[in-house]
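**Paired protein data**
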Amino acid sequence: MEVLSSEQVLERLHRRAQRQKLLGYAMYSSIVGGIFHDPALMLVPIDDHMVHRGHAVFDTATVKKGKVYQLDQHLDRFVVSATHARIPLLYDKAQMKSIILQTIVAGGRRDGLMVKYWLSVGGGGFSIVPEGTSAFYVVVFDYPSRGGNIAGIQEHTVSVPLKTPFLARIKTVNYLMNALTAMESREKGGVYGVQVDPEGYVAEGSTCNVAFVDEDGILRTPPFDAILAGITVKRILFLAQSLVERGVLRNIVVEPVKAVEGKQAAEMLILGGAFISPVISWDGIQIGNGRPGPVFAALHQLLEEDQISGEGQIDALPDSQSIGTST
């Protein structure tokens, strides 16, 4: 077995980045105190408790046409997650927001992006109790979902057990159950997967919330007491109020939904990551007429417009000239 020099390690990291076509455009790391562009160096130290203990939280935001969508709302949840996870903030909310915006601009692209950021309890040994200082990381990359699948997707119930309510309501890096949920669904021909509790009530998807439109025109989504309160679904519930006023919907309710009721719905929706997708089949059972419905079409249009002009929902990216070259 070779014992590699620092130069050999760096060369192999660059080869890996080229082979896997890593598409991180920019990264900020509090470990090095700046922003950089080399995908081969977009790494987290092995002694960081995010790596060997899963003691970290994260959140995201999307970038469309030079505008970052719902960054404040995501950062608010991020701070709450950090508090519950007992991770001291390295920076205040305004400082984190500034770093995130600067990292996006430094990446050189202003559309079709996702920015993901993490707060770790830090490094400093391999014990169960943290010994170091919190660490903050930001990475900007292409948004893989590209706004969801508007043609309709198939979904499947999975056997993966639910997280406890405490863990489900915190956006930690421990996404093992989420990953297994998506993997099982995809093995069956689905995409995200749908978790159902032992009493038969709908919970959530791997990285998304689930909503239904029943035959009476009522938009229904499960309560957030035992699942993650999705930023997108909460915004959809607000935007949908205009559909009630227009007569497209009759009402909007947040209440438990039995899976058997969901399969009889006129429409089923997957919501998350600033996108909405219609589900046209669940566990092989056709939803509604098997095509994207009118409520989906209306909500999709409202969400698209909101990402460009939603009041209090967007941050315009600063000019690239405001980003220093020393990073």
Q: What stands out?
A: The CA atoms of residues 20 and 44 lie 18 Å apart. The chain has a mean pLDDT of 94. DSSP finds ten helices and 16 strands in the chain. The longest strand covers residues 56-64.
